[in-house]
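Assemble and predict.
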Amino acid sequence: MNMHNPLQLIARLAFAFPVAFILSSCTTTEIDEFRQSATDIAFDESIVILGRRQNNNYETEESFVQCVGDVVSRGQGAISVVNEGEFLDAMFPFFEPRTAPMRTGHLEQLMAVDVAAEKLEEFGIEYIVWLDGITERSDQSGSISCTIGPGGGGCFGFGTWTDDSNFEAEIWDIDTMTSVGSISTESNGQSYMPAVVIPIPLIARVEANACSGLGGQLKQFINGT
Amino acid sequence: MMNFDRAIKTGYQSAAKIALVAIVLLLSACAATTIDISGTFPAPLIQKLPLTVGVFYDPAFTNHSFIEINDNTGDDEYIINSGSSQIELFNTMLPAVFQNVIELDSIESANARSDLDAVFVPAIEEFQVGLPQKTRLNVYEIWVKYNMRLAGSNGDYIADWVMTAYGKSPEETFQSVDDGVNDAANVALRDLAASFTLGFSDIPEVNDWLRVQNALGE
């Protein structure tokens, strides 16, 4: 009978966890901010974060928009964020992919429509944040094969890939109907999947890092700090 | 001898049952998947036109169904039923565009009504679906070409125009084809509602007619 020595097992785990931690932490995030005007927001004012969905090849994921909204609306300096879906339904049909304002000039035209301007006023929205971007996977290599038989099953192999997140947030001031600045984030990281009997996913949290980085910076930007 | 016959009979019956189950399983494996598009649509936030319009939904529109063929076998792969969602959309959209909307049982019934300013008849001319497994893109896509017809209550021609709607939905892990197609169809229907509500008055023939009706306001 082949029993593992408990000390051997502890030693293996002690080696595996730091390696797993180091490998899964291989993510770098770069954030750039470009400010055109001063900003501030009162406690009774809100912002709305909207994903751009005009591109043919991709569309900004709803989950990423939600994630950035969660970061902005929590913690120190939290800002009230209107839910994207609720806003799009209430403002229908002015912010649909085909009809959404692409430039601040279009926002001026929209504000000339009484029903639209009144609804924006009702929401108490001070800034509209347009999020545009995507997370792409590249450099996938390696292979993992799994087998199953009467005596059990298991996997063996190694896989790796790179994730790249590129997002840009453009901030529009509703009062002045101008763009007050933009924040861009670029995050990338390598994920690994070694498989010895069971696959062990060591996932680089690329999009999560892009979200927290962008959300935190956006909160500071709008608060004017 | 009696027992032997009974045994043969029982054997045949069992074999027939097994064959029946096998045929049912085989047929169900080959059967097309039916996708019923469902969704809710927000009422457009626009100024209503002071008009009473009758709307007639042709049975081809009400029961609209699109069949996606499997390229390899030539069999029906997906049956996409969008009729009820189309009706849901138009029944939400039209009352937001016109002051009064009356659903008609037939186009002819409009002649008997003196309260109608016009009769509106939507129709689907083309319906296309893009599935990730076929297009190699990681999105579900729906494209619909509509023909919109507006006539006087006496049947006189006012306008006839084509509109297209497009919707896409990103493919997600563990997402079923049904959900992907449904999401894309809902985006397409919203797209149609957005362009219809904002563009209706700008269609040249419609615009001319609205001016005659004095319905455009200031």
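Chain B is about 40% helix and 30% strand.
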